[in-house]
Amino acid sequence: MPKLFAFITLTFHASLCFCQANTDLLIDKITEYLDDKHIPGAMISVVTSDSILFVGGLGFADIDKKEKVTDEHLFRQGSVSKSLAALGILKLLQEQQKYSLDSPIKDIDANIPFTNKWVTETPVTVAHLLEHTSGFDDFHLHAIYNKKDTIPPSMFEMVAVHKNSLTSRWKPGVRKSYSNPNYIVVGHLLERLSGRAYHAYLYDDILLPIGMKSSGFYFKEPKNQKMTQGYRYNGQTHLPISFTSITGGPAGELCANAEDMAAFLQFMLNRKTKNGDSLPFSKEIFERIENAETTIVAEKGLPFGYGLGNYSVWKNGYLFHGHGGGIDGFSSRYVYSRVADIGVAVAINREGNATAIVNEILNLLLGIQNEALSDRVTQKIPNEISTRYSGFYEFKSPRNELFSFTDKMLAGLILDFDENKLVTKSILGKVRDTLYYAGDNKFYKNYEGVPSCMLFETEEGNAGFWINENYTEKESRAKRLIIFFGVLVSFLVCLSFLIYGFIWLIVRLFSKTKKPILNHLILFGASTCLVLIFVGFGLTMANISSADKINFGSALLYLSSWGLVIFAIASIYRCFKLQGNKGFKFYYILTSIALLILSVYLWNNGFIGLKLWSY
Fold it and tell me: Do 488 and 348 meet the contact criterion of CB atoms below 8 Å apart?
């Protein structure tokens, strides 16, 4: 196994002195992490603007074959793909000059099947797609995998598969909500403008000029390359995961190796290829790539965030940019900083967290930052800001609409102000973070040297708070707690009747005196349906690759959700016909009300009659 950084001698770059790396310590740390997390292997690239510090890997590309990771082994990169796709559409826009980032996508192709009720006032633009500010939903379960095609379908066909996601849930250009279908539409625009298949265009016009000659957007597993085997760890052993095609195109199909990722990192650091070719990208374009412009806070002066396929992130005392990715059996992450003059890319062949390895490398090279920057200027928070913005804030930019109900439970933040600090707390009052005022409604997070959080006024005049790319609005904490505890208590009451009803039915079965059974059966049936809804959902989520077809789990969810409603209505009706024991009457009415509450809650969140196979 090659020793990581064995030949590294780091010199001065941008007034930063890199000392000789402690190679053995770094290898020990990474190896320990791989062993601890049961990760078979890792691809690693570390560069500066003019030096390749390391290109290679640790561990195994294939466990059964005992095949070790080399700089030539391809790893599935997942959403790192988006960074290259963004370069592709930018290149076409620059060269053709017929359209721009601000062009409405319907001007490029009026046949794209999307819905935006704000189309006259605020049409969805190319920039909205690239910055995830279109308001589109993320992958729907039935549309993630493609098991029927043997060759890549056209991007318009992929767009059609994702049409259920392509609805602006709020006014475009306000909130950021990560959505893979955004980049599937970008892929269609690539094909529309170039007249070529997206994967061919991106390879010839982006990957090859950068120097990523072995990389590609692979719909099927490449047979003429060294492809790494992906795994899932079940707690005891590594389960190999097949290379399953996704309906993702440029949103997630990139495969790359350590050598090619090193070339890409240097391209982003130098803003030109090794041959000195900048492609058609100027300094201003690269700065646009690295900064957000279409969110409500970006328009108010907070560029930190998600640019064009490119995140901002503060690490080890420096502003970095990059992207991460995850796909079946793989996790990836790349970051680079022009100020620190360093770029790191890591991919692992197990579902997990490649970022932790990136952090270990940066800690060695740049040192661990454990205190705020001495030159960071903080200010006292004005009283009018404390008064206006104190309170509870609800998250309002869910990535997956199907799971948005989680944001309506115990999610959310309480904002408490203290001189130059803003303390964020959970809805139950637990301290989450401490932010420091930078002025102009902006805040530094932790040890950041640039502000990444911001208070703002919505167009409707409500107070808003931007943190961790999340859009929040001021809401009633009491209302949120009432809803949460109302749902929780209702669920517990129904579960209690499920247990009680089961015992009562068993006792009645062996009892000589046969008491009336209808009331018990109604509530027992309703409580059973409630549990089966979650069982059906869980079974479907455990096997997402088959979610595009009716299966036991999705059918169970669909039928039991309607069963819950029917039984709940029947139980309310029976409340007016109850006779006999007052204690049971009270318990029956309480359970019936609980069932009604849960039915309404699940209905409002789209779970009643949910057809996951076509969602």
Answer: no
- Cα separation of 219 and 85, whole Å? 15
Quote the tokens at residue 348: 């692992």
For residue 94, CA distances in Å to 125, 193, 223, 283 come to 16, 12, 35, 13
Amino acid, res. 80: V
Cα–Cα distances in Å, from 134 out to 93, 118, 185, 247, 295?
19, 11, 11, 20, 10
- Model pLDDT for residues 415-450, shown as the tens digit of each residue: 999 888 999 999 999 999 999 999 999 999 988 999
SS3 72: coil
In this predicted model, what pLDDT tens digit does every residue of 381-397 receive, in sequence order?
999 999 999 999 999 99
Distance from C-alpha of 109 to C-alpha of 530, rounded to nearest angstrom: 45
**Cα-to-chain-centroid distance, residue 358:** 19
For residue 502, the tally of other CB atoms under 10 A from its CB is: 14
Residue 589, SS3? helix
Q: 459-488: buried (b, 16+ CB within 10 Å) or exposed (e) per residue?
A: eeeebbbbbebbbbbbbebeebeeebeebe
514 falls in which pLDDT band (50, 70, 90)? low
Q: List CB contacts of 174: < 8 A, sequence separation 6 or more.
A: 133, 135, 295, 296, 459, 471
CA angle in degrees (0–180, nearest 5) for 460-470-381:
75
Strands, DSSP E only, in 96-227?
216-217
SS3 content of the chain, % helix, strand, coil (to 5): 40, 20, 40
Q: What percent of the chain has pLDDT over 90?
A: 80
The DSSP code sequence of 515-541 is: ---HHHHHHHHHHHHHHHHHHHHHHHH
DSSP category for residue 165: G
At what angle are helices 582-604 and 477-510 packed, to 10 degrees?
130
Which residue is it, tokens 């996508």? 105
Cβ-based burial of 425 (10 A; exposed 0-12, middle 13-18, buried ≥19): middle
Tell me the CATH class for 383-475: mainly beta
Confidence of residue 507 (pLDDT cuts 50, 70, 90): confident
Looking at per-residue pLDDT, the higher value among 535 and 577 belongs to 535
Contact 366, 104 (CB under 8 A): no
Report helix, strand or coil for 254: strand
Could you tell me the residue ranges of all domains in the chain? 75-255+277-306, 383-475, 482-604
Q: Within a 10 A sphere around the Cβ of 542, how many other Cβ atoms?
A: 9
Evaluate whether the domain defined by 75-255+277-306 bears CATH number 3.40.710.10: yes
Per-residue pLDDT at 186 = 98
The whole-angstrom separation of Cα 76 and Cα 257 is 9
What distance lies between CA 546 and its chain's CA centroid?
21
How many helices (H) does the chain have, and how many strands (E)?
A: 16, 22
How far apart are alpha carbons 246 and 227 in whole angstroms?
A: 17
State yes or no: pLDDT of 235 exceeds 70.
yes
